[in-house]
Amino acid sequence: MPTQISTASRTEHAAILGLGVYRPRRSVPNSEIVDAIESSDEWIKTRSGIAARGWADPDETIVAMSVAAAKDAMTAAGITASDVDTVVLATSSLMVLGPSAGAIVATKLGMHNTPAYDVSAGCAGFCYALANAASLVRDGQARHVLVIGVERLTDLLEPTDRTCAFIFADGAGAAIVGPSTTEGIGPVAWGSDGSQSAAIRQDKDFQEYFAEVAKAESTGGTTVRPYIRMDGRAVFRWAVTFLETACRDALDVAGVTVADLDAFVPHQANSRIIDALVKVLALPDSVSVARDIVETGNTSAASIPMAMEELLRTGAARPGDTALLVGFGAGLAYAGQVVRMPPITGIEQPVANAGASAS
Asked: Which residue numbers delimit the Beta-ketoacyl-[acyl-carrier-protein] synthase III N-terminal domain (predicted)?
């Protein structure tokens, strides 16, 4: 008879127990970038809805921003670094292949021998990482998982590129996922479409770049480092035609309807895409819609946790509210889930919704 292999003790429900963010010190208004892209404040606002964006200073690194956001998330959840069993970090702008940013962040937070890994799923990265974390908690592989979405996209921006230079920005958001007496994170609805990979891309891979460097060294020529490139029209068409289905799938698998929602937190890609989704989903006026993009820009994997924090901080949403999250972008990839909005520092979880356990 084959040897029986034991399995971990499962937990029925998972929830986001606390949320924290880091916003760069420097806020860059449209007026500072319009000359470089030969544009105007009105054109940028009409095309994207963005009035300003956060650009990181040299000391505001991927790791530094992640650590700051994580500390606030742990404080909001009422736990310490010693309570965290796993770190899952989502980013597309780490400029080295290894080690993972998650491992460095764990060490900076004082964690020891803690599993940590990075996820690369573009602007859907946080929702992918959140799905990973919820599964780890439910399967008994971890009790508390630190989920981070972080970007320094300004490292990959060509200042004169009219398609990207005014959109992308920097920042970090972190969440603690742990066990709960009631469900706080619905099943994920996710997928990808590699046929659309050219819509948002790095314009050259590093092999091409290294070949250019070698040639320049031998000929005395110059090189141009890799940059983000985007076909905005292709992304918009994909988003407004496909994401309705993705949103409805996330609602269906969670057993929730549009009428049950208190908040809608789409990836902060473009105000026109957000408006289109609100319209096609026929969201009631009572649903608070995240529009953090206006002052924050598109922070890719950090976008959704930062937008959640803005809704909570301003009082547009409250901890315990039912929210639909949907991330989408490079890949093209998407992921969405229905969640209970978490507490942030200074806003405690209402007693009526206090199903999460941080013990």
From this structure: 117-194
